[in-house]
Amino acid sequence: MRWVDVKEGLKGFLEEFKREKTGIAGVILLIILVLVALTAPYTTIPDLPEKWRNSQYWEDNPKNVPPTWYNMFTSNKLVPQEVYLLDDLKITHPSDTVTIVEADYTLPKKYVLGPQGIIIKGLNVTLNEPFQAPTMDVYLLRPDGKRVPILTNKQLSSGTTISIGRDSKISANVYIWLVNVTEGKKITMFEVPLETILINDMVAPMFAKVEPGMNVSEIIENPQTLPGNYRLVLQINNPAPKDNQVTYDNIKVTFLGRSYGNMGTDYLGRDLWAGIIWGSRVSLTIGILVSVLSTIIGLVYGVTSAYLGGNADEVMMRINEIFASIPSLPILILIGATAGHITLWFIVLLLVIFGWMGIARISRSMALQIKEQTYIEAAKALGAGNGRIIFKHILPQLLPYAFAVIALSVPGAVIAEASLSFLGIGDPTAVTWGQILNAAQAQSATTKGYWWWVLPPGLGIAVVGLTFVLIGTALDKILNPRLRRL
Amino acid sequence: MGYLKYLAFRILNAILVLLIVTFIISALFVKVAEQSNRAKMYEELMQWERTEGSKIKQSQGLEAFERAKAEKQASLEKKYELNIPYWQKVYRKAVRTLRLDFGTTGMPIFGTNKVSDIIKVALPRSVILFTTATIIVIILGIFLGVRAARHAGSVFDRGLSIFALLTYSLPMWWTGMMFLLIFAFKLGWFPLSSMFDPQLTGWAHIKDVLWKLALPVITYVFVAFGGWAWTTRNIMIGTLQEDFIMAARAKGVPERKIIYGHALRAAAPPIVTMIIFSLLGSLGGAIISELVFNYPGMGRLYWVALQQNETNLLIGLTYFFTVLYLAGVVLADMIYGFLDPRVKVGASAKM
């Protein structure tokens, strides 16, 4: 083939491709996907794969909550995440030894349950006089004028994290307060029923109607949300301000949402939106790499087999049949499970090894026809070597077909990678859709109704698949009119 | 080449491939088993040292203990086949597998230790699930495909094509998860787990099975029928353009007869091949789908075997899948050769 022919052919091909609506749709989808994958570090969290498995990194996020936009479709709205940094808080110093930090929180009408929890962290304490360590009282002022004591005399040190909703002592305090308001009596720590405060959501009652005469277990089971303005107050007593210093520069008060971000969170509080965006990188890379490599190997193998003919052909086809008859998914699982350290490259290799056979068969049958043509014989007569005839004369004829095959086999490769990851056999350092679904399955997200955890990764797989199917069928229609019959 | 000769050639070929594949599978699994067997042996040896070994050490001294320990280790090595070279082990395993002697599992599954009995329990379950679903898919696919081919370019045809393209890129297990979410969790129409209730018998058992099969079958049909219909449509469109159809039309044969009598028969060979392979493929069970639905068939069994490191069961199942595939290849060749005489003559005879 000469360069001019290639240029002409390409031009004609582009002209025809423009007329295929599905192909254009596929190309647009592909461009969007590539852009999403490339810009992932800038549009979401940088270096996500390193943070993904570090549960501490996600501490400040609510767990198992739906996306914020879901509120548009429900009457019972769920509060979003709210973070207060130094500038959002009111800090006053009534005396030398007392500092008061206040966070104003509004719970609008129609919202249910209030936040999932409150996390206070980032207080820096320099301790030189341990016997007079600073302490903190935390309480919540409610719109009905009631005051919920959350913590009293909590000793402070650097790294103290107060997490309302996850700390059983705080939950016990809330329970004591509930009993005090409803029944008017004071109970001690030891009278608090442990299983109640460990199992139930003890944050919602803080943001619910609590009146004298109401039943405590009724409030816990079925809290009636009380909208209005709340104020979280931290009162820090520092008896020795000269020796022990408390600085507030890094303070961070987080009101955990009952909904979060674009895609909600999973059981560790991980931002699923970031995970899904990053997952597209692995999916696209593996899909394209596996299909390109296995198509090339299959083509060369098939054409060589057809061209050589005779015994070599027989042997090569037997090898092909052996690979084809090994049940691939079980063997992949087995190799993956026993190989220990699995990288993405290893998965690509495995998928290529078990993915070239079909293409080899078809390209062999196509090459058998081309082989009989006269110009091949002419080339042979002129003394062209086997390699030259295969690579120069037969393979270029199959190239258009190869492009369609590459596009059409991407969905299979993407699904195969997702399946392996879903089974827990994936690169542990990567974030993939299959792994997100694996975690969802392990935490039985489907039987708990966490749709935001299951739906998006699969849709991602489907969109990548659809993109390449659209391109592939369009290519197929243009380049191989004969093959349209399958 | 005559038909019988052709058939004998294909069967011999399949047997040769089966032998080689069995050998490869054995080589792979023996390697896996070796590691776990070594660990098991050391565990047993440690156990022995703590109980009997310490007794010998106390009563007969250190020397006697060392001797007894070496003896015990040798006997354990023999028990776990660690004393013979790797390739010999592979050979033995392959021969035993070919004789269908799969051995036993470490832990009982479905109340038995014998691998062949375990497979006998799981196989019918996968058969009823996937074969039922496959049959529905085939009927629906062929019917809709033929309809689309008759009205090529119509709204129905386009809609079907789009649906087929969409479902082609869906992982079946993910669709299963979504269906579980929608139909089992939200609407509560179907059970969340497809594990059978072992206490039920008779009519109640059948009702339980049907109830638990429903959602997996619906999922399978939903994902698969579009692709089937689309492929059938493409084959039929090609056939409908052939000369003999024109001739039949010119003769005035009724359209219905042309479609189902002439065209579908001519398009039969590739469709029959597809039917064989999807029926056989259905027997293997889809590992992940059964896992998602918690359905106790072959696929889930494979997963359990892998989790519990039951090498013998894994070999048995893998061997079974391979035999099924090769049987399918031979069967397809047989029917293909029968329906389309061109296959056995000329250059393609050796394909």
From TrEMBL, chain A:
GO terms for cellular component: plasma membrane. It is a multi-pass membrane protein. The chain crosses the membrane at residues 23-45, 286-309, 329-356, 398-416, 450-475. The keyword Lipid metabolism does not apply. It comes from the Archaea. PROSITE patterns: ABC_TM1 (PS50928). GO terms for biological process: transmembrane transport. Keywords: Membrane, Transmembrane, Transmembrane helix, Transport. Pfam families: BPD_transp_1. It is found in: Cell membrane; Membrane. SUPFAM superfamilies: MetI-like (SSF161098). InterPro entries: MetI-like, MetI-like_sf. The keyword Membrane applies. Belongs to the binding-protein-dependent transport system permease family. This is Peptide transporter. It comes from Thermococcus celer Vu 13 = JCM 8558.
Automatic annotation (TrEMBL), chain B:
InterPro entries: MetI-like, MetI-like_sf. GO terms for biological process: transmembrane transport. The chain crosses the membrane at residues 7-30, 127-148, 160-189, 209-230, 271-293, 313-339. GO terms for cellular component: plasma membrane. CDD domains: TM_PBP2 (cd06261). Belongs to the binding-protein-dependent transport system permease family. This is Peptide ABC transporter permease. The lineage of its organism: Archaea, Methanobacteriati, Methanobacteriota, Thermococci, Thermococcales.
